[in-house]
């Protein structure tokens, strides 16, 4: 009977016939011999078949067949039925076992389904298979297993499209994956990295596979790819570039500058920058002007004029009579000159009340001076005029010894009845003084000489001479030369070196400046030990001559500066000021100070932000300047290492052209340099030698550590009159040439050609941008034959390169000493040096100041270094007054009032 199974399955007998065949098969001996038929023991003859394993849905991948398995117990026969037809008995693979727990026989049958079998009905219906198990009691059917051919089409039904979006804007990227079986899964990638919405909630993938960026960030800029995958294949869509841009915004206007005219009609200006925020990634620049100018009228200075002399006084006890005049016809105003000459005249006279035995400078005469200097001026002015009067008395041709009354006069002239507690500094008039040379001058008048006494303030030199001439030693006394020659630290300075300055200094200190470079060295009072005289130099080293080791992302951020001679002994730190070109954000940088040792090896001596107050170096970083406190002289360089791609250097872009153009060819040179004054000065000097001229104001560009080059191009030239001779559309400066900083300046030359010699006007756009980064453009509009150099933006430093002693400082030495003694001592309410540091916004350096013997003195040193050219001493006096110290009134006195 089982032999009929083949024809039965192929001819498709009716269900009734099959059941009848099944019943007879149980009693057929031939059935017992067939491979798919078995006889159950009598103990299990009444059990229905139970499926342990049923066939599962399967996918045919490429041409690999799939296997279906069916296992049942107890069963006499198991056959598969696919799409309503019985599978041939020869296609079954049968395996028999016994369940050790129940002793029931287990029958397992497997069949293979090929791709060809499924493709016969593909498209008409789904291909399915089911197994049927028999026992003597009845039959059981398994679940249907569906067999499908797996595939994944190549083309996406919808791919994401690139977008340019503003910062914080929502972004929607659509993706409809290719058709496939089984249904493909979708994931998103940005720059080949898989996006995980669970770890970054700013991303969201919708049910229909679209990607939503809730708020676009700068970090979200990149190439986005939709990836579809199933068991067959993995497909990628074309990448969609998302560019997150930032539209520029104006900063607030700066305050108006001072009027350009000293007298009469002039102008003043204010500026703003497109940095709030700075346009990025092609964002629109700010609309409008960045500079505003306004007409102003400056009040003209009025020079003072003398009034008529008063009548002569009666003959005094000192055998003299007096008359006076005042500087009131007119009074000096708005910076006008004071009256020149004497306001007091004396004349010898005789009288019965004129005892000849009286000394020339009697108390009565001193009292007359006191009356003169104490009215109508205030106490500060009385200090200045009183000092002048006493000097006048000291150097009168009839100079005699000073009496107690004259000294009292001096004290009365300094201390008014209203402010007697403010000024208590008195010179020692009992000691011998040196001869006075010249007149009293303003402390910034560097053309004259200043004298020093051998009183309590100054230590005498061996020959009794104390006069320094404009920061240099007086060459006359041979003792000075012999004294210097005996010092082990003295060196002959290379005085022919360009960009260098030198001077001779003692304990009063001074200042060295390299004009127009932003480089200076402040030598505070008491930095040089008393009794010592040093000849000190300051110079800029050429970067290309140095072997400064730079590794990784390190870059040189300023000039390499030398001050020396090395090895001199200093009692307190000097302050070296130099420009830097970093973006000023310490979060972007690891800034290191390097120093060259005696063997020429560069060493790290300081890491900015991690300074130790016990070390001999300390740094104050400002927006464009680095100020180094150093107890040792030597060669220094500021090196920065970028911590991420947000770090940027400030570059200064400067344009030059030929001063005269007599040919059709015309060159424009665009210099790209670090934004420091010393590099700009060198370029200006070089172009002056080449006969070049400046054709536009310098422009500042932030150059980021993004490994991208700098590109420059010229556009929008009038084609009817001009054409470019460059073959390429742009010129490019490699990233590492700029970032390394070892090359002082780089430039590109744009060679243009005018079609006629009569063409003199040129208008065009210069575009400068960092590849895949921010950029800027500015217009050029000038006459190539007649335009002059406009150097208004240049801050020319005309001050002396070396200033010694009091002329180098804004705060007089004696007053400085009084301030330090007043603020150094801790005050319970905090009105001491700590409050001074807070008012000057230097609280970051509190621990450094506290480590010094005189914190106030170090704070004043830093103030002097910061405000030598632009300092307003009255503002410092206001800070003192705000602290509550009466010494603020002292600042109102200046040497010029004498």
Please, could you describe this protein's structure?
- Receptor for netrin required for axon guidance. Mediates axon repulsion of neuronal growth cones in the developing nervous system upon ligand binding.
- Residues 161-239 form the Ig-like domain.
- Belongs to the unc-5 family.
- This protein is of the alpha+beta class and 898 residues long.
- The protein has 15 helices and 49 strands.
- Among the domains are: 50-151, Immunoglobulins (Immunoglobulin-like); 481-642, Chondroitinase Ac, Chain A, domain 3 (Sandwich); 648-783, Immunoglobulin-like; 810-891, Death Domain, Fas, CATH 1.10.533.10.
- The protein is elongated, with a radius of gyration of 48 Å.
Q: Specify the structural class.
A: alpha+beta
The count of helical stretches stands at: 15
What is the strand content? 25-35%
Q: How big is the Rg?
A: 48 Å
Task: Profile the largest sheet.
Answer: 7 strands, mixed
Instruction: State the separation between the terminal residues, measured CA to CA.
Output: 141 Å
Main location: membrane
Function: Receptor for netrin required for axon guidance. Mediates axon repulsion of neuronal growth cones in the developing nervous system upon ligand binding.
Keywords: Cell membrane, Developmental protein, Disulfide bond, Glycoprotein, Immunoglobulin domain, Membrane, Receptor, Repeat, Signal, Transmembrane, Transmembrane helix
Subcellular location: Cell membrane
